[in-house]
Amino acid sequence: MGLSERGPAAPAHLCGACTIDRPEYDYARSAAVYEGALREALHAFKFSGKRALARPLGDLALEQCVASLPDGIDAAIAVPLARERERERGFNQAALLAQRIAGRLGVPTRPRWLARVRATRPQSDLTAAERRANVRGAFQASPQVAGRHVLVVDDVLTTGATLRECARALHDGGARRVGVLTVARVLHAAV
Asked: Which of 34, 103, 118, 141 could form a disulfide with 184, with the two C-beta atoms 3.0–4.6 Å apart?
């Protein structure tokens, strides 16, 4: 089974950072740790345009985490990518993963339910505090999320800053429950 954080399936699995700064999402699931061959595959998918990896990576996330996902998910939503980065890459890796995962779960994807409303710097070279500041207020939810249980999909959970901000926007928009599903997550040795 994958890595869990918060929620009914994993009340005792909060990382050190999350015990101090509770996330906005109701639960998070990740298939594996971001290292080795999985890290290389995600890097090739995201930065080398290997779109065909969406299928096996999405399948991995679901196969490792489906047993711990709560029932009643209404839709999957990809983390919106900054327009400039989507133009550079030619695709949004989270959207491809969300489509695969939603299809296997039998739920729709709803890309218009969460929008990036301002540009942000790439997160990869920022500290945790800089990441939080960088994405603060960057997302806005559609009123259509009201009362819904949504699953936010991304490739990697690093510090959680982007996913927390997405979840905050969705809860502010009235979402009943917000979960997170990623292919991998970075484990931090000390916080």
From this structure: 34
- In tens, the pLDDT along 99-131 reads 999 999 999 999 999 999 998 887 878 888 898
- CATH 3.40.50 assigned to 3-185: yes
**Per-domain boundaries in the chain:** 3-185
Dihedral angle sign, alpha carbons of residues 153, 157, 162, 168: positive
Closest C-alpha among 115, 164, 112 to residue 136: 164
Q: What is the pLDDT of residues 146-174, one digit of tens each?
A: 999 999 999 999 989 999 999 999 999 99
Of 47, 23, 45, 58, the C-alpha closest to 166 is 23
Burial class, 87, CB count within 10 angstroms (exposed 0-12 / middle 13-18 / buried 19+): exposed
Contact 14, 5 (CB under 8 A): yes
Chain Cα centroid distance, residue 112:
16
